Amino acid sequence: MFIDRSKIFIKSGDGGNGAVSFRREKYVPLGGPDGGDGGRGGSIIFRVDTGITTLLDFKFTKKFVAKDGERGSKSKCYGKDADDLYITVPLGTLIRDFESNKVIADLSDKEDVFVFLKGGQGGKGNCKFCTPTRQAPHFAEPGMPGEEMWLTLELKLLADVGLVGFPNVGKSTLLSTVTAAKPKIANYHFTTIRPNLGVVKAGGVNAFVMADIPGIIEGASDGVGLGLDFLRHIERTRLLIHIVDISGMEGREPFEDFNTINEELKKYSVKLWDRPQIIVANKTDLLYDDSVYEEFKRKMNELGYDKVFKMSAATKTGVEEVIKEAAAMLQAIPITGLEITDEERFIPQEKKFTYTIQLEKGEESDTYFIIGSFVDRLLNTVNIHDADSLRYFHKVLKNKGVLDELREMGIKDGDMVSLNDFEFEYIL
Length: 428
Known about the structure:
The protein is an alpha/beta fold. It has three domains: 1-155, Spo0b-associated Gtp-binding Protein, Chain: A (Distorted Sandwich), CATH 2.70.210; 161-332, Rossmann fold, CATH 3.40.50.300; 356-425, GMP Synthetase, Chain A, domain 3 (2-Layer Sandwich), CATH 3.30.300.350. It has ten helices and 18 strands. The chain has a six-stranded mixed sheet with strand order 10-11-9-12-13-14, with helices on both faces. A five-stranded mixed sheet has the order 3-1-8-5-6, with no helix packed on it. A four-stranded mixed sheet has the order 15-16-17-18. The radius of gyration is 33 Å and the shape is elongated. The chain starts with a strand and ends with a strand. The relative contact order is 0.11. Its main location: cytoplasm.
Protein backbone atom coordinates (compact mmCIF):
# COMPACT_ATOMS: atom_id res chain seq x y z
CA MET A 1 0.00 0.00 0.00
CA PHE A 2 1.38 3.40 -1.00
CA ILE A 3 0.54 6.11 1.54
CA ASP A 4 1.90 9.59 0.77
CA ARG A 5 -0.06 11.80 3.18
CA SER A 6 -0.81 11.45 6.88
CA LYS A 7 -1.95 13.50 9.86
CA ILE A 8 -0.19 12.96 13.19
CA PHE A 9 -0.10 14.43 16.72
CA ILE A 10 3.20 15.11 18.47
CA LYS A 11 4.07 16.33 21.96
CA SER A 12 7.44 16.91 23.59
CA GLY A 13 7.96 15.92 27.21
CA ASP A 14 7.34 18.17 30.20
CA GLY A 15 10.29 19.21 32.32
CA GLY A 16 10.52 17.62 35.76
CA ASN A 17 9.56 19.69 38.79
CA GLY A 18 12.21 21.05 41.10
CA ALA A 19 12.30 19.49 44.58
CA VAL A 20 11.58 21.07 47.95
CA SER A 21 13.93 19.44 50.41
CA PHE A 22 16.10 20.33 53.42
CA ARG A 23 19.27 18.70 54.62
CA ARG A 24 18.46 16.55 57.65
CA GLU A 25 21.34 14.52 59.06
CA LYS A 26 22.57 13.50 62.44
CA TYR A 27 24.24 16.44 64.11
CA VAL A 28 22.89 18.71 61.35
CA PRO A 29 19.30 19.29 62.50
CA LEU A 30 18.86 22.58 60.67
CA GLY A 31 20.61 22.03 57.36
CA GLY A 32 19.85 24.33 54.47
CA PRO A 33 17.69 23.68 51.40
CA ASP A 34 18.99 20.91 49.13
CA GLY A 35 16.20 20.32 46.60
CA GLY A 36 17.60 19.49 43.14
CA ASP A 37 16.43 20.66 39.72
CA GLY A 38 14.09 18.64 37.54
CA GLY A 39 15.25 16.94 34.33
CA ARG A 40 14.57 18.12 30.79
CA GLY A 41 11.66 16.56 28.90
CA GLY A 42 12.27 14.57 25.73
CA SER A 43 12.35 16.42 22.40
CA ILE A 44 10.62 15.34 19.18
CA ILE A 45 13.16 14.77 16.40
CA PHE A 46 12.49 13.82 12.77
CA ARG A 47 15.12 12.00 10.75
CA VAL A 48 15.28 10.46 7.29
CA ASP A 49 15.36 6.69 6.79
CA THR A 50 16.22 5.76 3.20
CA GLY A 51 14.83 2.27 3.81
CA ILE A 52 11.28 3.65 4.02
CA THR A 53 9.47 4.56 0.80
CA THR A 54 5.94 5.41 2.00
CA LEU A 55 4.15 6.91 5.02
CA LEU A 56 2.38 3.60 5.68
CA ASP A 57 3.60 3.40 9.29
CA PHE A 58 1.71 6.59 10.10
CA LYS A 59 -1.58 5.02 9.00
CA PHE A 60 -1.52 2.93 12.17
CA THR A 61 0.45 5.11 14.59
CA LYS A 62 -0.68 8.72 14.71
CA LYS A 63 0.26 9.85 18.22
CA PHE A 64 3.87 10.48 19.28
CA VAL A 65 4.49 11.68 22.85
CA ALA A 66 7.98 12.05 24.34
CA LYS A 67 8.59 11.17 27.98
CA ASP A 68 8.69 13.73 30.79
CA GLY A 69 11.86 14.61 32.69
CA GLU A 70 12.22 13.22 36.20
CA ARG A 71 11.60 15.49 39.14
CA GLY A 72 14.51 16.65 41.28
CA SER A 73 15.26 15.03 44.62
CA LYS A 74 17.02 15.74 47.91
CA SER A 75 20.76 16.20 48.37
CA LYS A 76 20.75 18.51 45.34
CA CYS A 77 20.25 15.55 43.03
CA TYR A 78 19.05 16.57 39.58
CA GLY A 79 16.26 14.67 37.90
CA LYS A 80 17.22 12.56 34.86
CA ASP A 81 16.65 14.07 31.40
CA ALA A 82 14.14 12.12 29.32
CA ASP A 83 15.24 10.40 26.11
CA ASP A 84 14.42 12.20 22.88
CA LEU A 85 11.76 10.62 20.65
CA TYR A 86 12.94 10.02 17.07
CA ILE A 87 10.39 9.77 14.26
CA THR A 88 11.71 8.27 11.02
CA VAL A 89 10.24 9.38 7.70
CA PRO A 90 11.00 8.64 4.03
CA LEU A 91 13.36 10.79 2.01
CA GLY A 92 11.37 13.65 0.45
CA THR A 93 8.91 14.16 3.32
CA LEU A 94 7.42 17.62 3.73
CA ILE A 95 6.25 18.55 7.25
CA ARG A 96 3.35 20.99 7.44
CA ASP A 97 1.42 22.63 10.27
CA PHE A 98 -2.01 21.04 10.05
CA GLU A 99 -4.02 24.17 10.89
CA SER A 100 -2.32 26.60 8.52
CA ASN A 101 -0.95 24.05 6.01
CA LYS A 102 2.30 26.01 6.00
CA VAL A 103 5.62 24.24 5.50
CA ILE A 104 7.76 23.64 8.58
CA ALA A 105 10.53 21.48 7.11
CA ASP A 106 11.51 19.75 3.87
CA LEU A 107 13.51 16.57 4.57
CA SER A 108 15.04 16.05 1.15
CA ASP A 109 18.54 14.94 2.12
CA LYS A 110 19.40 11.48 3.44
CA GLU A 111 21.41 13.09 6.27
CA ASP A 112 18.55 15.33 7.42
CA VAL A 113 17.84 15.38 11.16
CA PHE A 114 15.35 17.98 12.35
CA VAL A 115 14.83 18.85 16.03
CA PHE A 116 11.20 19.83 15.92
CA LEU A 117 9.72 20.32 19.40
CA LYS A 118 12.16 20.78 22.26
CA GLY A 119 11.37 19.21 25.60
CA GLY A 120 10.44 21.45 28.51
CA GLN A 121 13.22 22.64 30.81
CA GLY A 122 13.33 21.19 34.29
CA GLY A 123 12.23 23.40 37.19
CA LYS A 124 14.68 24.76 39.74
CA GLY A 125 14.88 23.14 43.17
CA ASN A 126 14.38 25.18 46.33
CA CYS A 127 18.14 25.45 46.90
CA LYS A 128 18.26 27.80 43.88
CA PHE A 129 15.88 30.24 45.62
CA CYS A 130 18.00 30.60 48.73
CA THR A 131 19.16 34.19 49.48
CA PRO A 132 20.67 35.94 52.51
CA THR A 133 17.18 37.08 53.49
CA ARG A 134 15.36 33.90 52.42
CA GLN A 135 17.41 31.05 53.81
CA ALA A 136 14.73 28.35 53.91
CA PRO A 137 12.48 28.61 50.82
CA HIS A 138 9.59 26.16 50.99
CA PHE A 139 8.88 26.31 47.27
CA ALA A 140 10.43 25.17 44.02
CA GLU A 141 9.87 25.83 40.35
CA PRO A 142 7.69 23.52 38.26
CA GLY A 143 9.07 22.10 35.03
CA MET A 144 8.27 23.89 31.81
CA PRO A 145 5.50 22.16 29.85
CA GLY A 146 6.30 20.49 26.55
CA GLU A 147 4.86 21.67 23.27
CA GLU A 148 2.26 19.91 21.16
CA MET A 149 0.74 20.27 17.71
CA TRP A 150 -0.93 18.46 14.83
CA LEU A 151 1.13 17.96 11.68
CA THR A 152 0.57 16.84 8.12
CA LEU A 153 3.28 14.66 6.63
CA GLU A 154 3.39 14.82 2.85
CA LEU A 155 5.67 12.67 0.72
CA LYS A 156 6.97 14.12 -2.53
CA LEU A 157 9.14 11.60 -4.30
CA LEU A 158 12.71 12.53 -5.15
CA ALA A 159 13.40 11.74 -8.79
CA ASP A 160 15.52 13.37 -11.48
CA VAL A 161 13.11 12.56 -14.29
CA GLY A 162 9.33 12.32 -14.20
CA LEU A 163 7.28 10.44 -16.79
CA VAL A 164 4.00 12.21 -17.55
CA GLY A 165 1.19 11.58 -19.98
CA PHE A 166 -2.31 10.19 -20.28
CA PRO A 167 -3.08 6.72 -18.90
CA ASN A 168 -1.94 3.76 -20.98
CA VAL A 169 0.54 5.65 -23.17
CA GLY A 170 3.48 3.45 -22.19
CA LYS A 171 5.10 5.13 -19.18
CA SER A 172 5.27 1.96 -17.09
CA THR A 173 6.59 -0.02 -20.06
CA LEU A 174 9.42 2.48 -20.52
CA LEU A 175 10.27 2.40 -16.80
CA SER A 176 10.39 -1.40 -16.75
CA THR A 177 12.57 -1.38 -19.88
CA VAL A 178 15.30 0.96 -18.62
CA THR A 179 15.29 0.16 -14.88
CA ALA A 180 14.90 -2.83 -12.57
CA ALA A 181 11.49 -1.56 -11.42
CA LYS A 182 8.58 -3.92 -12.03
CA PRO A 183 5.43 -1.81 -12.28
CA LYS A 184 2.15 -3.48 -13.10
CA ILE A 185 1.56 -3.34 -16.86
CA ALA A 186 -1.72 -4.09 -18.57
CA ASN A 187 -3.78 -2.78 -21.49
CA TYR A 188 -6.36 -0.85 -19.52
CA HIS A 189 -6.58 2.62 -18.03
CA PHE A 190 -5.20 3.35 -14.57
CA THR A 191 -3.21 0.15 -14.33
CA THR A 192 -0.71 2.28 -12.40
CA ILE A 193 -2.35 3.59 -9.22
CA ARG A 194 0.82 4.54 -7.35
CA PRO A 195 4.08 6.23 -8.39
CA ASN A 196 6.95 3.89 -9.18
CA LEU A 197 10.65 4.68 -8.97
CA GLY A 198 13.57 3.15 -10.79
CA VAL A 199 17.27 3.86 -11.27
CA VAL A 200 18.43 4.17 -14.87
CA LYS A 201 21.92 2.68 -15.31
CA ALA A 202 22.65 2.68 -19.00
CA GLY A 203 26.04 2.35 -20.62
CA GLY A 204 27.82 5.62 -21.19
CA VAL A 205 25.46 7.78 -19.08
CA ASN A 206 25.40 8.81 -15.45
CA ALA A 207 22.78 6.97 -13.39
CA PHE A 208 19.61 8.89 -12.55
CA VAL A 209 16.28 8.24 -10.86
CA MET A 210 13.13 8.04 -12.97
CA ALA A 211 9.58 8.20 -11.63
CA ASP A 212 6.52 6.78 -13.39
CA ILE A 213 3.69 9.13 -12.38
CA PRO A 214 0.20 7.60 -12.70
CA GLY A 215 -1.83 8.88 -15.62
CA ILE A 216 -2.87 12.51 -15.34
CA ILE A 217 -6.26 13.32 -16.86
CA GLU A 218 -8.14 16.49 -17.67
CA GLY A 219 -9.15 18.24 -14.44
CA ALA A 220 -6.31 16.66 -12.44
CA SER A 221 -5.19 20.05 -11.11
CA ASP A 222 -8.70 20.55 -9.71
CA GLY A 223 -8.60 17.19 -7.93
CA VAL A 224 -10.39 15.09 -10.54
CA GLY A 225 -9.54 11.44 -10.01
CA LEU A 226 -6.32 11.29 -8.00
CA GLY A 227 -4.80 14.18 -9.88
CA LEU A 228 -3.50 16.23 -6.96
CA ASP A 229 -2.01 13.13 -5.37
CA PHE A 230 -0.15 12.34 -8.60
CA LEU A 231 0.96 15.88 -9.46
CA ARG A 232 2.61 16.28 -6.06
CA HIS A 233 5.22 13.68 -6.94
CA ILE A 234 6.68 15.50 -9.95
CA GLU A 235 7.34 18.78 -8.14
CA ARG A 236 10.92 17.77 -7.31
CA THR A 237 11.84 16.44 -10.77
CA ARG A 238 14.36 18.38 -12.83
CA LEU A 239 13.21 17.06 -16.19
CA LEU A 240 9.93 15.72 -17.60
CA ILE A 241 9.60 13.08 -20.30
CA HIS A 242 6.19 13.73 -21.80
CA ILE A 243 4.88 10.59 -23.51
CA VAL A 244 2.01 10.64 -26.01
CA ASP A 245 0.35 7.76 -27.85
CA ILE A 246 1.12 8.56 -31.47
CA SER A 247 -0.78 5.51 -32.76
CA GLY A 248 -4.22 6.96 -32.05
CA MET A 249 -5.42 3.51 -30.90
CA GLU A 250 -7.24 5.10 -27.96
CA GLY A 251 -9.20 7.37 -30.29
CA ARG A 252 -7.45 10.52 -29.03
CA GLU A 253 -5.42 13.07 -30.99
CA PRO A 254 -1.73 13.19 -29.81
CA PHE A 255 -1.34 16.96 -30.08
CA GLU A 256 -4.53 17.56 -28.08
CA ASP A 257 -3.35 15.07 -25.45
CA PHE A 258 -0.08 16.97 -25.10
CA ASN A 259 -1.84 20.31 -24.66
CA THR A 260 -4.30 18.87 -22.16
CA ILE A 261 -1.56 17.47 -19.91
CA ASN A 262 0.50 20.65 -20.15
CA GLU A 263 -2.52 22.74 -19.23
CA GLU A 264 -3.01 20.64 -16.07
CA LEU A 265 0.65 21.10 -15.18
CA LYS A 266 0.31 24.86 -15.64
CA LYS A 267 -2.84 25.06 -13.50
CA TYR A 268 -1.12 23.14 -10.71
CA SER A 269 2.18 25.03 -10.84
CA VAL A 270 3.65 27.42 -13.40
CA LYS A 271 7.10 26.33 -12.27
CA LEU A 272 6.21 22.72 -13.06
CA TRP A 273 4.81 23.67 -16.47
CA ASP A 274 7.99 25.61 -17.25
CA ARG A 275 10.24 22.62 -16.49
CA PRO A 276 12.33 21.24 -19.40
CA GLN A 277 10.50 18.52 -21.35
CA ILE A 278 11.49 15.77 -23.73
CA ILE A 279 8.56 14.91 -25.99
CA VAL A 280 8.23 11.21 -26.86
CA ALA A 281 5.84 9.89 -29.50
CA ASN A 282 5.36 6.30 -28.31
CA LYS A 283 3.81 3.21 -29.92
CA THR A 284 5.33 3.95 -33.32
CA ASP A 285 5.23 0.20 -33.98
CA LEU A 286 1.44 0.58 -34.31
CA LEU A 287 1.64 3.67 -36.50
CA TYR A 288 0.04 3.12 -39.89
CA ASP A 289 1.36 6.31 -41.48
CA ASP A 290 4.66 7.99 -40.58
CA SER A 291 3.26 11.35 -41.66
CA VAL A 292 1.22 11.38 -38.45
CA TYR A 293 4.45 11.59 -36.45
CA GLU A 294 5.93 14.19 -38.80
CA GLU A 295 2.87 16.41 -38.40
CA PHE A 296 3.00 16.00 -34.62
CA LYS A 297 6.70 16.87 -34.57
CA ARG A 298 6.07 19.96 -36.69
CA LYS A 299 3.47 21.24 -34.25
CA MET A 300 5.83 20.58 -31.29
CA ASN A 301 8.62 22.50 -33.01
CA GLU A 302 6.26 25.44 -33.56
CA LEU A 303 5.60 25.49 -29.83
CA GLY A 304 9.35 25.66 -29.18
CA TYR A 305 9.99 22.00 -28.28
CA ASP A 306 12.97 20.75 -30.25
CA LYS A 307 13.46 17.51 -28.27
CA VAL A 308 10.91 15.25 -29.99
CA PHE A 309 11.61 11.52 -30.32
CA LYS A 310 10.00 8.50 -31.97
CA MET A 311 9.86 5.47 -29.71
CA SER A 312 8.29 2.08 -29.19
CA ALA A 313 8.74 1.07 -25.57
CA ALA A 314 7.31 -2.36 -26.36
CA THR A 315 9.97 -3.15 -29.00
CA LYS A 316 12.64 -0.90 -27.37
CA THR A 317 13.01 1.06 -30.60
CA GLY A 318 14.30 4.59 -29.89
CA VAL A 319 14.53 4.00 -26.12
CA GLU A 320 18.30 4.41 -26.00
CA GLU A 321 18.14 7.78 -27.75
CA VAL A 322 15.58 9.09 -25.26
CA ILE A 323 17.62 7.94 -22.24
CA LYS A 324 20.85 9.43 -23.57
CA GLU A 325 19.15 12.75 -24.24
CA ALA A 326 17.68 12.78 -20.73
CA ALA A 327 21.08 12.06 -19.18
CA ALA A 328 22.71 14.80 -21.24
CA MET A 329 20.08 17.37 -20.26
CA LEU A 330 20.38 16.49 -16.57
CA GLN A 331 24.07 17.39 -16.66
CA ALA A 332 23.10 21.00 -17.40
CA ILE A 333 20.17 21.24 -14.95
CA PRO A 334 21.26 22.03 -11.36
CA ILE A 335 19.86 20.11 -8.42
CA THR A 336 17.69 22.42 -6.33
CA GLY A 337 15.29 21.93 -3.47
CA LEU A 338 11.65 22.90 -3.39
CA GLU A 339 11.18 26.66 -3.51
CA ILE A 340 9.22 27.61 -0.42
CA THR A 341 8.12 31.24 -0.23
CA ASP A 342 7.86 33.24 2.97
CA GLU A 343 4.07 33.04 2.68
CA GLU A 344 4.25 29.25 2.51
CA ARG A 345 6.71 28.82 5.38
CA PHE A 346 5.54 28.28 8.95
CA ILE A 347 6.97 30.76 11.48
CA PRO A 348 6.98 29.26 15.00
CA GLN A 349 5.69 31.52 17.71
CA GLU A 350 7.76 31.96 20.85
CA LYS A 351 6.00 30.25 23.75
CA LYS A 352 5.06 32.81 26.37
CA PHE A 353 3.15 32.58 29.62
CA THR A 354 0.40 35.15 29.29
CA TYR A 355 -2.56 36.37 31.31
CA THR A 356 -5.66 38.50 31.02
CA ILE A 357 -7.60 40.33 33.72
CA GLN A 358 -11.38 40.31 33.87
CA LEU A 359 -13.36 42.59 36.21
CA GLU A 360 -16.55 41.51 37.94
CA LYS A 361 -18.42 44.29 39.76
CA GLY A 362 -19.90 43.59 43.19
CA GLU A 363 -22.13 45.44 45.62
CA GLU A 364 -19.47 45.93 48.30
CA SER A 365 -16.24 45.04 46.48
CA ASP A 366 -15.08 44.13 43.01
CA THR A 367 -13.30 40.95 41.99
CA TYR A 368 -10.43 40.87 39.49
CA PHE A 369 -9.96 37.49 37.82
CA ILE A 370 -6.44 36.85 36.48
CA ILE A 371 -6.50 33.96 34.04
CA GLY A 372 -4.05 32.35 31.62
CA SER A 373 -0.99 30.10 31.43
CA PHE A 374 1.02 32.57 33.54
CA VAL A 375 -1.35 31.97 36.45
CA ASP A 376 -1.08 28.17 36.24
CA ARG A 377 2.70 28.27 36.26
CA LEU A 378 2.92 30.79 39.10
CA LEU A 379 0.55 28.87 41.37
CA ASN A 380 2.49 25.67 40.77
CA THR A 381 5.51 27.46 42.20
CA VAL A 382 3.90 28.94 45.28
CA ASN A 383 3.33 27.37 48.67
CA ILE A 384 0.53 29.55 50.02
CA HIS A 385 1.10 28.31 53.56
CA ASP A 386 4.65 29.67 53.69
CA ALA A 387 5.45 33.34 54.30
CA ASP A 388 8.64 33.34 52.19
CA SER A 389 6.79 31.73 49.33
CA LEU A 390 4.04 34.36 49.47
CA ARG A 391 6.64 37.12 49.41
CA TYR A 392 8.10 35.53 46.29
CA PHE A 393 4.57 35.37 44.85
CA HIS A 394 4.07 39.11 45.47
CA LYS A 395 7.46 39.89 43.91
CA VAL A 396 6.55 38.02 40.72
CA LEU A 397 3.24 39.88 40.41
CA LYS A 398 5.09 43.16 40.81
CA ASN A 399 7.92 42.35 38.39
CA LYS A 400 5.55 41.10 35.68
CA GLY A 401 3.50 44.29 35.85
CA VAL A 402 0.33 42.63 37.14
CA LEU A 403 -0.02 44.95 40.14
CA ASP A 404 0.51 48.04 37.99
CA GLU A 405 -2.17 46.85 35.58
CA LEU A 406 -4.61 46.26 38.44
CA ARG A 407 -4.03 49.81 39.67
CA GLU A 408 -4.63 51.19 36.17
CA MET A 409 -7.94 49.31 36.11
CA GLY A 410 -8.95 51.09 39.36
CA ILE A 411 -8.51 48.41 42.01
CA LYS A 412 -8.97 49.67 45.56
CA ASP A 413 -8.49 48.42 49.12
CA GLY A 414 -10.83 45.55 49.93
CA ASP A 415 -11.26 44.34 46.35
CA MET A 416 -10.57 40.65 45.70
CA VAL A 417 -8.00 39.21 43.33
CA SER A 418 -8.67 35.68 42.07
CA LEU A 419 -6.15 33.36 40.43
CA ASN A 420 -7.85 30.05 39.71
CA ASP A 421 -8.80 28.66 43.17
CA PHE A 422 -6.57 31.08 45.07
CA GLU A 423 -8.03 34.41 46.23
CA PHE A 424 -6.61 37.25 48.29
CA GLU A 425 -7.76 40.69 49.40
CA TYR A 426 -5.98 43.60 47.81
CA ILE A 427 -4.37 45.99 50.31
CA LEU A 428 -2.64 49.12 49.03
